[in-house]
């Protein structure tokens, strides 16, 4: 019985996805705040590795291990790396921005609502 190394690449991977399809995924992922880092990483693995096969499991795990060594949010770093791996610099920037901006807008809207509530109480 032969075991597979983490670093082995599958030759049956699908071709690189269209940039538009990747943008849709990163935008959707950015709106999902439930589950935190663990949830985001799980969603990325399920969608990118198992469902779409845009990246191999070995590359995903290698990237995740590298991101865990670095300081900062692993899920965002992983999204940026995978975006870069799929579409170069523009893919990394797009993945990073779409990962952060929706959550920023949610917090901004909640802050504005709180501000109006505090003002109305005064």
TrEMBL record:
Membrane protein topology class: Multi-pass membrane protein
Subcellular location: Cell membrane
GO cellular component: plasma membrane
A molecular function GO annotation: chromate transmembrane transporter activity
Domain of life of the organism encoding this protein: Bacteria
InterPro entries (UniProt xref): Chromate_transpt (IPR003370)
TM regions (residue ranges): 93-119
Main location: membrane
Keywords for the protein's UniProt record, in alphabetical order: Cell membrane, Membrane, Transmembrane, Transmembrane helix
Family: Belongs to the chromate ion transporter (CHR) (TC 2.A.51) family.
Designated name of the protein: Chromate transporter
Organism encoding this protein: Chitinophaga terrae
Species classification: Bacteria, Pseudomonadati, Bacteroidota, Chitinophagia, Chitinophagales
């Amino acid at each position: 019985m032969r075991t597979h190394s983490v670093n082995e690449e599958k030759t049956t991977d699908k071709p690189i996805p269209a940039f538009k399809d990747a943008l849709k995924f990163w935008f959707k992922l950015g709106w999902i705040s439930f589950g935190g880092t663990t949830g985001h990483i799980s969603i990325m693995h399920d969608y990118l590795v198992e469902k779409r096969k845009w990246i191999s499991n070995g590359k995903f795990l290698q990237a995740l291990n590298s991101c865990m060594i670095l300081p900062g949010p692993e899920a965002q770093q992983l999204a940026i790396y995978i975006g870069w791996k799929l579409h170069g610099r523009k893919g990394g920037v797009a993945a990073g921005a779409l990962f952060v901006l929706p959550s920023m807008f949610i917090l901004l809207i909640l802050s504005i609502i709180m501000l109006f509530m505090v003002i109305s109480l005064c």
